[in-house]
């Protein structure tokens, strides 16, 4: 049995309608990023379990009010009518922006469905069905990519050969000169030098070398200890500054929220529900936008916006 659904943010397929019978379903979608201003809803058809999903079409809702992820709500209605046509509508419940489209399911079963590729071409060129080539034209087109072989002048070949011999001679001369210089340096290095030192002089040289090595090790140790102490002190100071800044920011945020809550409480309107009232009508009266009914329901903890009790009092928050 085929199904029609949407792809979620994690790439998984979520079936909405099962089969091709007359039906209609409504979903409430939300954003996955903070301050997300648009939402693209991609429709797919799962005709056979072992085959890839078939792309149907997309709906795009623009100008979504900037808000943290998960706060905006988009009503998405998907249905199939008696003629076998698929209709879908997406409405931003906060701004009222909506998009809709209608697709024939019969056309999706035809063989000329366009497959969307995983890549894009900047430009595509090719022959159409009526743009055919004759045999001579094909031969000419092939010959255009064959490079003509040109003859090389004899005098230029001789000149290049002459310059090549000169370059080879210079290279051999430089190599021979370098070889002689290396041999002379090696002979000088291997010539023994007789140096006579007394036992006391040898001991003094070794003592000075050991003293210099010890001092160098001590200086390196002290320098490393000072650097570690300075780094630790800088880290502690940075942590203290970050903690103080975080505490100040938390206090300022708490004060701001308290002020906003106080101001919001001051603007809240109490309304007693009368027989025949609906949240849709109340939202239209106070906000001039019936799609704001969800705001009233959420603020008063009403789980089912279609079921409200006459005689009860609800609070209408400011916009």
UniProtKB/TrEMBL annotation:
Domain LysM, chain residue ranges per copy: 269-316
Pfam family, one: HSP70
PROSITE patterns hit by this protein: LYSM (PS51782)
Alphabetized SUPFAM superfamilies for the sequence: Heat shock protein 70kD (HSP70), peptide-binding domain, LysM domain
Residue spans crossing the bilayer: 154-176
Single GO molecular function: ATP binding
Protein's UniProt name: LysM peptidoglycan-binding domain-containing protein
